[in-house]
Every structure is written in C-alpha cells, then in structure tokens.
C-alpha cells in the first residue's frame, strides 16, 4: 500500500527520499515475486500445447482463487459499493491481463512478451507526466520496443504483439485498481476476492476442461498457481507495506530482465543483441519514468501488482 502523505507533501514541499533499507527490502520482495512469476509462466507454457493458453490461464486462476479464499476467508458483508467496484475492477483487469499475456507467450519469447506488458505501467505513469524528461523516458521505452521488433532478426509476430500490447493495456488498468484495492481496509482478503472474480470470468474457458485435465497437469497447474499468483501477490503486498508505490513500481522493471533470463535458461529462447538491448532500454526507461512520475502521483504506480 502507498505510504501516508506527509505534512511536507501536503504543503507542496519536495517529498523526503525513501530510506535505503526500505528500498532494498521492497526490491527483495519484488525480486522474489517476479522470479516466481517467471518460473510460473515457464511451467504454464509447457501446458499450452495440451490445454491452450486461455484455458491454462483460467485453470490457474481457479486454483489460486480457491487457495486464497480458503486461506484468507474474506467477509462478503459490510462492504461499500466503492469497495466492490475496486474488487471487481481489479479482478477484471487481472483476468484479461493474464489471458493476453499467456496468449502472447504462446507466440513470442517470454522476455519480449513481459517487456511489452511492462509498457502498461509506463503509459499510466506517462499519463500523469508534467515534464519533458518524463516524455523522454517514454520515448526511450518505445525505442526499446522498436529495437526488439525491427532490429536484426527482430521478433515480430503480429498476433503475438497484439496480445502482448492488449496485456499492457490491462496491466495499466491493473496498476490503477491495485492501488485502489491496496488502500482499502480488506487487505489480502480483498485480493482473494479479486482473484475469485478473475476465476469466475474465465470459467467459460476453464470449466469445459476440468474433466479432461490429467493428474500430472493438475500438479503443474497447482505449482504455477501457487508461484505465479499466491506467492507473487503476497510478495508484492509485503513490498507495498515497507515502501511507497514509487519504489515498488520502479522495482517492477525487473520483470523484463528476469523474464528474458527465464526464457533463456528454461525455454532455450536466445535473443538477438538488438532484442537484448531493447529489453534493457525498456526496463531502464520505464523504471525511471515510473520513479519520476510517482514522486507526484504515487497512487498511479503499481503498489501490489502481479504479472
């Protein structure tokens, strides 16, 4: 969750720099969550041929929702309309983001799909930009995308890019809703309800496959759900508790780098020099953009995100 607004900030003064210990601790939580997320994606990708990317995403959310609802047992009564708006909106963004990302991973390398997905938080931060330097950061991120797709041996699959950019749109919405839900009193209980909403929305694709999934496939789906949803969401929430949204949002730039490493190590997806340079450029530019823009609008940065 976002840090409380200080008297200095209310008076328009420059906000104090975050403590180094909190920054490093938040980075550790985000790194653990992002690493688990990438491993989860690798496991899930191995099921695409048998189940399909949309079906795998839905089944994974179904398992994660059951686990989180049992563990946190969120209350249903006593919530305002605004609370439910945040919970449902968060779940909608989560379901669409996961489905688009998995469909992209089915067509383009993991590192590139995750990099394009990271453009969502960048655009959200850019929407709050007020200075030229923030616009330059955005241009740097988009230049990185061009390096990935148009450089020597560029990885451009039109449908894969379309799914990845669709995922970025919903990741942008996710960052806004994550901030809203993260500030609510329900905590991880609200998160569990949002995952439940995402699971319900994906039932049309997951339900028809329940009877045909084999025991080994259920095992892989369970591991992917625990790592990529339950564990990652918990790590992101802990990061949001020890540092403000600007810090956490900046650390999410680890996703493209760790996604590329996971694709290389576990899926044999070697990247060209131009794609590697583009991923680094997107991650660095996006991190700087979220950091600078978040100094004035921390609520627009991811503070409890998941990929």
Automatic annotation (TrEMBL):
One of its GO terms (cellular component) is plasma membrane. The lineage of its organism: Bacteria, Bacillati, Actinomycetota, Actinomycetes, Micrococcales. Residues 159-290 form the EamA domain. PANTHER family: ACYL-MALONYL CONDENSING ENZYME-RELATED, THREONINE_HOMOSERINE EXPORTER RHTA. This is EamA family transporter. GO terms for molecular function: threonine efflux transmembrane transporter activity. Belongs to the EamA transporter family. The chain crosses the membrane at residues 29-51, 57-72, 84-104, 110-129, 136-155, 161-179, 191-211, 217-235, 247-267, 273-293. Pfam families: EamA. Keywords: Membrane, Transmembrane, Transmembrane helix.
